[in-house]
Amino acid sequence: VITLRHVRMMKLRYWLLAAFGWVTLALTYLPAGTPVRVTAVYLFGLAGPGLAIAGLVVRDIAARCVLTVAISASLGVLISVAMTLLHNDSSSLPIAALAAVTTVAAILWGIRSSRETRAEPADGEVVLR
Amino acid sequence: MTSTVPRALRQCLSQALRGLPSAIVTATALTLGVVGTGLGFTIGQVRTPRTATRERARLVARPPYRAIAGAGLPVAIALWIVSLPRIRLERMGDYGLVPLLPVTFWAALAVLMVAYAVLVQRGSTQGWVLTAHLIALIAFLHATPSVLYDTLRYAWAWKYVGVVDYFLRHNEINSSIKELGVNQHWPGFFTFNATLVNAAGLQTARDYAPWAPPFFTILLLGPLYLIFSTFSSDRRLVWTGLAIYVLGAWVGQEYFAPQPMVYFLYLTVIALCLRYRAPQRRGAPPEPHGNRLVGAALIVMVAAIAPTHQLTPVMVIFGLGVLVLCRYRVKTLLLAAIVMAVAWDALIAWPWIAENLDFLSLGSAGDNATSGFTNLSTASHSQGVVAQIDRAFSATIGGMAIVGFVRRGRYGRAPALALLAVAPLSLLLTSDYGGEMVFRVYLFALPFVSFFAAAALFPHAGAGRSWRMRLVLPAALLVLIPGFLFSHFGKEQANYFSRGETDASLFLYGVAPRGSLIASVSRGLPWGFMNYEIYDYLRFGTLEAKDRQRVLTDPVGSLADMMVGHHHAYLIISRQQIAEVEMTGAMPNGSVARVEEALLRSPRFTVIFRNPDAVVLTLTQPVPEEAP
Lengths: 129, 628
Fold this sequence. Notes:
The complex is a heterodimer of chains A (129) and B (628). Chain A is mainly alpha-helical and 129 residues long.
């Protein structure tokens, strides 16, 4: 069962990952071609959603790295094709959709991590049974 | 190294300050490349595991051995950087880039591969160090044109930049556009790039497209590592297989295009299936929750392949079919792959498929395999030699793989990998894919072939330990280097575009109004597909043989007849186009120059732009009759 306590115990890095897409979305309002905007968009588009989902899916670091790009690209393709089929030319909506996926996955990953941390006794901790 | 990189960075930053977004991307890529390689190497050197201490102590006792292992990467990078300013592109001719490469470039590759071989055979070398070597190898092989060329390399890359630009202007699939219609109906790669270009506020994908070859090749290392390490715990085999793949991938399918992206997804799908969907013993416990998430991730990737490429979904089905035969638990995924591919083809891509059913040549495997081969009787002498080298090179890797398969015999032949290596041959039964099918078969087979080729040297953990065998790996990698360079860069004369050709193309599209006819010798044109939905195209070098002959017999009359039906018609002839059609033998040597001379002499054509690399002509407009 996921409780508010688990959410509160989430480490900062998961919150940062959860916010990655929304920060990128905010940066798209900077002037066209600004280096920080270009970097953020490509970094998020090619790694953001995948990083969050790969954390949930596999534990092997090599597999996680591969899935980071593969899932990001796949979701990017699926969302952009859907937008094309719907004749929607919004530039913000695809990034917002990817950001939402990233947020959900990052929070789930963070919660799972905090639950696992609670389940494992810390070094030197005595567990009374 | 201390002068070239800072100079390049200064140049990029000054261009960026003048408002050129591509310079930002170039500067970022350059910085990341140099920093990443250096960092990877440094981390690898510093973070040597404790288990390697004894090995390290042994190496300390052998100074030359240690020196080669440690200094190989930085020396190779320095040699490569020194080589770059010495490559004189204006001298490009027969054998493409190969004769232009200075000795230092060859030395850079040789030093890198010898150092890599030494480190691989140490066994305890950190993965970071070996990865840094492979990234450097990829940079030498694939980033060299990106750094040197003023413009994007390869005509097809320009074509795909044009399609991305189309999806920046239009958010719809338009089946009425005949030019590049296939890309309209499998648009995933283009719409994704258009989304990123739009969100980043760039003008076009051209800004970063030149960096696609190193980017995609580096990406491929990931799934390949997963596949190889699933079947062998011998790190020598795994890392040798990776190097053989990089050196063996000469067919040039890593440029800015849908194929390398879906190829990466295909290999990732196969890697995950091999790792997480292995055959389960009877009575084994049900799969854990995480394994179901892997299934969901696989579905997402297979779903993304379906709308992105016309051929790869078929290969996904063949690949998953092979795994089902080997009792991997991928039946549901195979079913999903079939349903998604059929659904996309039936619902979205059908207008194109219905019009191009002749694209399929079912069952004609022999014809499909050979239609893409260079015709040695008509091709130029240099291209005949290049074609023979690339065939021998491919056969060498294939031969090594057969030896590896046989040698691995008793230690597990990995039937799934062997079947995945031969499964792409089934593609030959479907179509000749515009003469390219045999190269796609090679592309899809190469990962698994590379594994067995590496197994020829290291069939099991105890093999390859003698001093004699230790010399075989560096020797094998050194032999592969010229094979790759001739096969990949031997046709560079037809892949390189000069600044003059770019200027001519930009002029042409600057003056051609909507509805004009753009005639050329071949598709080779930088910015060749700018606003392509509003133009008609004619390439006389790719017409049927009798029509080509007609152009050669009566250039002025035949071309004027072909162009006269449009209110504006332009003809562009460029250095690259001539090289392309004459290298392949589509037009006889010197024939295009004779066509050009005839057009220049004729009053029916007017030259409207000319520079040493290209000429743009238009049909002379009749002088209006004076009013009485």
